Amino acid sequence: MSNFNSTQTSLWMNAVTHWRLLSFVTLMLALVLLMVKLAFWQMQRAEQKQVILSEYYQRSGDVFSLSLAIGRGSEQWRRVEVGSLHWKEQLVYLDNQFESGRSGYAIFQLANTPQGAALVKTGWVPFTGNRKQLPELKNSISQSQFLIRYPSKSIVLDADHWIEDMGVAQRVQQLNIEALSKLWGIELLPFYLDPNLDLNPEQLIAMPAEKHQAYALQWVLMAIVASILTIYVATIWWRGKGDEQ
User: What is the pTM of this model?
Assistant: First the structure.
């Protein structure tokens, strides 16, 4: 009877140990797959950043007329010559925009061009700490050349309150040109015009491609270490099981 109980206990302990090993290996395999996926994602992000810089340097060099640029698909970063701008009263303050580490507003104003109504970026002002009053931008745009740019897709926590009527302007959490077009009852061009013609890489991309590549390498190395650890633990267990037999 004693030998039977001992055998049963030994079998139960082996089953528990086997279950723990299986759980460990499964968890580690899931982590390795996640790390590999994150590495590929970082490499994709690096490639996207390189494409953005390449497109900017390629398209911002030559000047097209706005009508020709629209005819060619209104490509992002295309430098265009606008025949005339007739400013309208509508103003848009894009919230939570950072420059030199400071939070503020990017300001856009509606203007009529020979090719249609468009939003024109007129500048940036720092946040004053008073959410009830918008700071005034004291500058004017007199140039005729601009870059075609499309709004970035930002995350809005409250989709129902992405826009606030501040009286003198609309304060928005994202630059939704289509929604503004419906709000004002005006057909807007699907892009905005940026007067800043000489952007540096830091203004184009928040994180350089090299940093994404470094993160990708980090995830790959972590996946390799996790794989080696899993193989080592499984090998030790199998050797111990063989010795018991």
Answer: 0.70
